[in-house]
Specification:
Layout (H helix, E strand, L loop, with lengths): L2 H9 L11 H13 L6 H14 L3 E5 L2 H12 L6 E5 L1 E2 L2 H7 L4 E5 L10 H6 L5 E4 L11 H11 L2 E5 L7 E2 L2 E2 L6 E5 L12 E5 L2 H10 L4 E4 L2 E4 L10 H12 L1 H18 L6 E2 L7 E2 L5 E5 L5 H10 L9 E2 L10 E2 L4 H9 E4 L7 H17 L1
Parallel strand pairs: 2-4, 2-5, 4-17, 5-6, 6-9
Antiparallel strand pairs: 1-10, 3-16, 7-8, 7-14, 9-10, 11-12, 13-15, 15-18
Helix pairs in contact: 2-9, 3-9, 4-5, 4-8, 10-13
The structure holds pyridoxal-5'-phosphate.
Pyridoxal-5'-phosphate binds next to helix 4 and helix 5.
């Protein structure tokens, strides 16, 4: 292969995602470095304040990742051995692992085949006298319909801990993701809507839970009359101000980032309108979807992984949707409700298309053309 060909290949590479970061973030990082205050401090407070306003929650508590925000939530809720939590089978494993790490059992239930989110009828089937809570997921930027879950939670006195790792900025009707559940956790991993490299946020309207979370993430410490008192068992999930500074700037441009993602999704939607082999994702018309992932459904069975590989060789990065937990070895002993058929099918057939902000319509057309061409050839 000549050097020219290598250069052409690299230039045409279409990435799954491109974090929207630049000079604004750099200048605020510089400010933090020059201040000499590099642990969690004023920038983290600013990030939390703006985030709470964005999602309409009373409290926002920053953490090192969505996983640690979820862990903190489970810990302040007191989940432990003998407890059961209901989780969707179609999600990233950590949604369930935070409770499992504390000795609780995960009860895996199926998801809706069109929104990919937890099916409330399946949640009902999973409730026992050991159930303490539901950990639903607003997957890929499509927010949950919280009303039926709230009804179930009220009936059975359960908490709702929402995993909204992918759904910063989403809305269901007028309700914002982050203000609908007892506790909601977000991710700022680079593949998410906004990023701090690694980072997470916990939101809640509950003063008591917020105070517990703030203490526990900071070694269990409370300041009383200017002195540090260690009130509870604690840990360290503080986010450095170096990263929080990135978050502050990301929040200033979040509307633009999401609108761009929605534009990209609208183009894919129109390109896939009459396509038989690749089905565009369905959207509940009551939601404002952030399209953290644009996951299309491959109609032919057994070819999705080959398609990802072959697209990759053409310089187009695609991905699976997410995981079906009951298929993973680590989940072999957890409780399953029903045959989890939707979760299995979505795990095997979903294809996440590139959503880089700098893609042109021609790039998107090329992505769809290549995918269809390959699918037809299998
Ligand atoms: C649904 C879901 N929850 C939680 C996480 C974990 O987020 P983090 O990487 O911020 O810990 C992910 C990561 O992809 C996810 O997709």
């Amino acid at each position: 292969m000549t050097l020219d060909r290598i250069v052409i290949h690299v230039e045409r590479q279409i990435k799954l995602i491109e974090p929207v970061v630049g000079d604004e973030e750099l200048s605020l990082i510089r400010e933090v470095l020059e201040s000499g205050y590099m642990t969690e401090g004023p920038k983290a407070r600013e990030f939390e304040k703006s985030f709470a306003e964005l999602v309409g929650a009373k409290h926002a508590i920053v953490t090192t990742s969505c996983s640690t925000a979820l862990q903190l939530s489970v810990d302040i809720l007191g989940v432990g051995p003998g407890d059961e939590v209901i989780v969707p089978d179609f999600t990233y494993p950590v949604t369930a692992d935070v409770a499992r790490l504390r000795g609780a059992r995960a009860v895996l239930v199926d998801v809706d085949e069109s929104t990919y989110n937890i099916d409330p009828d399946e949640v009902r089937k999973g409730i026992t006298d050991k159930t303490v809570g539901i950990v639903p997921v607003s997957l890929f930027g499509h927010p949950l319909d919280m009303a039926p879950l709230r009804e179930i939670a009220q009936e059975h006195d359960l908490f709702i801990l929402e995993d909204a790792a992918c759904s910063t900025g989403a809305r269901f009707n007028d309700e914002k993701t982050g203000s609908m559940a007892d506790l909601t956790c977000f991710s700022f991993h680079p593949r998410k809507v906004i990023t701090t490299g690694e980072g997470g946020m916990l939101t809640t309207d509950d003063d008591e839970l917020a105070e517990k979370a703030r203490e526990m993430k900071r070694f269990g410490m409370r300041m009383v009359d200017g002195r540090s008192l260690f009130m509870t068992v604690g840990t360290n999930y503080k986010l450095s101000d170096v990263l929080a500074a990135i978050g502050v700037k990301q929040l200033e441009k979040i509307d633009r980032i999401i609108e761009r993602r929605r534009e990209l999704a609208a183009v894919y939607d129109s390109l896939l309108t009459d396509v038989v082999l690749l089905k565009k994702p369905a959207v509940d018309n009551r939601v404002y979807h952030t399209y953290q992932t644009y996951a299309a459904f491959v109609i032919k069975d057994g070819v999705r992984d080959r398609l990802i590989k072959d697209m990759g060789e053409k310089g187009i990065e695609t991905q699976i949707g997410t995981y079906s937990l009951h298929i993973q070895p680590s989940f072999s002993d957890e409780t399953r409700i029903g045959d989890l058929v939707h979760s299995t099918k979505l795990f095997e057939n979903l294809l996440a298309l590139p959503m880089s902000q700098s893609m042109t319509e021609d790039d998107q057309e090329m992505v769809v053309r290549e995918a269809i061409g390959l699918l037809e050839s299998y």
